[in-house]
Amino acid sequence: MKSVWHLALTLLVWFSPLALANSAAPVLLTGAEQPAKYLPLLKGKRVGLLVNQTSVVGEQHLVDFLLAQNIQVVAIFAPEHGFRGNHDAGAAIANGTDSRTGLPVWSMYGASKKPSPEQMQALDIILFDIQDVGVRYYTYISSMHYMLAAAAEFSKPMLVLDRPNPNGAYVDGPVLDLAFQSFVGMHPIPLLHGMTVGELALMIKGEGWIAQADKLTLTVIPVANYQRQQAYTLPIPPSPNLPNQQAIKLYPSLGFFEATPLSVGRGTDFPFQVIGYDKFATDGFAFTPVSTPGAALKPPLMDQLLHGEDLRHVPAGGLTLSYLMRWNQLFDSHAKTLFSAPDFMDKLAGTDQLRLQIAAGLSEAQIRASWQPQLQLFLKQRQAYLLYP
């Protein structure tokens, strides 16, 4: 009888409204989903937007939402993959007009990576809202860098609507050596930096990584009820070849294969979730990439039967060097060079040391140990710019 009474009391407490209210987790709200915090900054201003298909307020695109709020949007700036997110990786984005709104769309991924003086003079404020994946060589943060630089140069305020980092739990990889600075790596940060775009914007300004940083008026609208360690599933694919969480989690490790003759599944239904080659293999898995939208330019080994690794269901997260090291050993055993584009590999890594360490046969533990002094310095350096626990 005592045990039955104890169970009934437990259930009463568990299902009481107060207990349910206390157990409900606070709702995560992106910066864009908190309009009361940023609409007053835009009212009566000529607004330029650096946005893409991930820039949504609920299910409505930010452009449409702002226009419905009578905000004067005068220009859209498009990053890699375009305003609608349907261009190939590396494809130059042309200037044009958005068919839905009639607004001019200016490319920030073509001949120029930053707005012209004429474009900047037509604006009163710039708004950035793009979902990033937390990997240094993913170019949206490079586009943000150039827009921050333009805002500082022309004394225009910039507003960043923050979004979670789906790889925010990790700080790993080599810190970029500025001798290897490029559009796939502009800042002296690790490959996995564990920061949101809002935090990075604050760091870019605070560390003086753009000219005239002291002239920049920067406002960040943080994500509400967010902690960097929490899992976050992206509601919209951030680019054509990162279609799901598994690809996003594997991207830090498989992105390096872009500097090799291997395929990582561009031109399949599972990009950045497989590794394959036509000459020799590891695990007996086979696939054939074909030319598709979003995979027409770069992919090697198109329309060929490839053999390799199926990673669609492996545990993934952080940076794993074992894939790269295993294929390097396999290439060595066939007297072939894995890094067919060494300069590009060094740009992706932000250093030539990773390529040289792998070629020299160092273990993963030895390579990781070499990163630690700079990683510890970075963790201290970024502390002043963190917005989330």
TrEMBL record:
InterPro entries: NamZ, NamZ_C, NamZ_N. Gene3D superfamilies: 3.90.1150.140, Uncharacterised protein PF07075, DUF1343. Keywords: Signal. The keyword Magnesium does not apply. Transmembrane segments: none annotated. Residues 47-245 form the Peptidoglycan beta-N-acetylmuramidase NamZ N-terminal domain. It holds the Pfam family NamZ_C. It comes from the Bacteria. Residues 1-21 form the signal peptide. Residues 250-388 form the Peptidoglycan beta-N-acetylmuramidase NamZ C-terminal domain. PANTHER family: HYPOTHETICAL 460 KDA PROTEIN IN FEUA-SIGW INTERGENIC REGION [PRECURSOR] (PTHR42915), PEPTIDOGLYCAN BETA-N-ACETYLMURAMIDASE NAMZ (PTHR42915:SF1). This is DUF1343 domain-containing protein. It comes from Alishewanella maricola.
